[in-house]
Design a protein that fits this description.
single chain, flat
Length: 201
Amino acid sequence: ALTAQPPLSQQPPPSMAEKPQIQLFVKASEDGESVGHCPFCQRLFMVLLLKGVPFTLTTVDVKRALDVLKDFAPGAQLPVLLYNGEPKTDTVTIEDFLEDKLGPPTFPSLVPRYRESSLAGNDIFHKFSTFIKNPVPAQDEALQRSLLRALLKLDEYLSAPLEYELAHDPHLRASQRRFLDGDQLTLADCNLLPKLNIVQV
């Protein structure tokens, strides 16, 4: 005897049947509660938001509550991701893991089309940190010029039309795109924007 299958509309879609349980632990700001100024924590926060996946955000006051991590990631630096109870550390590793686990068709891919987009501005934060932490005042001017050169290089990349723009309009002189790689935020933007925010502050 044949068993009747329930109509398709009553069957849960396979990908939605078991949604991953995701918890992101990030550094808290000075108030001990809101999201802090850690660019690596903000980077993963942006990735999860852009993926559109439900997740729990836990801010950790590093002055008082690092023991929150002791049961599943002792000694780990923030950010830390718990994916179905399994801890993940290291920002780049977590980003690659999320891109692998939360990819199309259910979730958007955030990988940039152009390799250059991932490299654009990648030295700005280092040059900024070197400048503001410099203990030798005589080096300030040279370090500031180095930072400004890196910012100008990023500006040039953002102003230059990308291949897909030139395919639509070969005579385009200045890029019309909104972000590093096009009109959608990508992993490149998630990496750069939190760092630029700190440079701006």
